[in-house]
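hiii, so i know i said id send this last week but things got crazy w the move. better late than never?? heres the sequnce for the chain we talked about at the cafe, plus the structure i predicted for it. fair warning i was half asleep when i ran it
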Amino acid sequence: MTIGVALTTVNEGNAVEEVVEQAKEASSAGITSVWFGQRFDYDAITLAGIVGREVPELKVGTSAVPIFARHPLLVVSQAQTVQAATHGRFQLGLALGAPHLVEVAFGLPYSKPVELVREFLTVARSLVETGTADHHGELLTAAPIYSTAVAGAGTDLPLLVAAMGPRALRASGELADGILPFLAGPRVLEDSIVPQVNKASADAGRPPVRVIAFVAALVTDDVDAGRASAEGAMSLYDGIPSYQRVIAAEGLERASELALVGSAAEVQAGIQRYLDAGATEVVVTQTNLLGREVQRETWAAIGR
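okay and structure toks below
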């Protein structure tokens, strides 16, 4: 069992230096990995590389880099550079993204996301394992005229996908090394997500993939404040169809209802339910909602 935490930058001081300090504290608390979501300000792969160099006890990963408006040649180049810099402790998480982000921010049509992730994974796997690719697909062309191998990066960069829908799970089981479900509760994991992705991997003649569940959690005596802060931070997911579906399948109405808020024992028991449901690893998110002291208490509880 491994426990990680999602980190985010602050809006004052130096964002990179601050997140490095957070990572050092997380490592001291017994956390084994830290993860960075891609945003419109910092670059997640770059930040993971810096943290991985500064805190060599930690594995680092992205959760996750959207594939729209990014070419696998460039993403894998970044990823392999970080893999070499961290001596094999980096893991590349990819995301299909959401229509309202892709179409508004980049002016691109959100079309055929599962087909795109299939081609993206196919190209990425070839680049990592062979140092080249010769892919001429419907959505992507990747035929580099020079080697893409980075000395020291190796050939086992983990490729992970933030997949929860049936078609994305099938593609991930066939082509990826793991999945990064967020807001998929224990019931949904056990009854739907884990069986689907494992069936896909078995049908493809591959071993079961990793299931890295992302779970919001706060260790606090002020449960009301914790619930209120979770509602404020997580309400944006209530309007995204892919999240709406898994929240409803869990028998809930709002994303914030999935947050584990309470004592250390209560949060630990909540995390155990995800592991019992088939998650191979858990990454705890939203730990900063009530300030750094609560964040430290949460990290100490899950690090144990």
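btw The mean pLDDT is 96. thought thatd interest u
miss u guys!!
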